[in-house]
Write a structure and sequence with these properties.
Distance between the termini: 37 Å
Shape: elongated
CATH architecture: 3-Layer(aba) Sandwich
Number of helices: 5
CATH class: Alpha Beta
CATH superfamily: Vaccinia Virus protein VP39
């Protein structure tokens, strides 16, 4: 069986989806690439909530966390909650956590 893979941005256009209620990003370290690819939709305030898992080596995690928070603030997203995954942090050199952002300027 073959499946067609489409970037989610193209899927929105193809299916004529007007807005996204919740965007979950769990890309094992490629969060910034996904967010950069979503700039157009972020500018249009078409995404209400973003739940992103930030995963990075412990040494660089704080920097990456700050970059993503700063990036999303530019698009009116506010960090509401963060939860660090202790199991990842305890048993490896990786630190990860889930971050919940809400768009303060969301428009239907």
């Amino acid at each position: 069986m073959k499946f067609q893979q489409l970037p989610w941005i193209l899927l929105l256009k193809k299916k004529k989806i007007k807005f996204i209620s919740i965007l979950k990003i769990d890309t094992e370290g490629s969060e910034e690439k996904v967010l950069n690819g979503a700039k157009k939709n972020l500018k249009k305030n078409k995404i209400k909530i973003i739940l992103v898992e930030i995963l990075e080596r412990k040494k660089f995690h704080k920097k990456k966390e700050k970059q993503i928070i700063t990036f999303l603030k530019k698009y009116n997203f506010e960090l509401i909650k963060k939860r660090i995954a202790l199991s990842t942090s305890c048993f490896s050199n990786i630190k990860g956590g889930d971050y919940l952002f809400v768009n303060k300027s969301f428009k239907y």
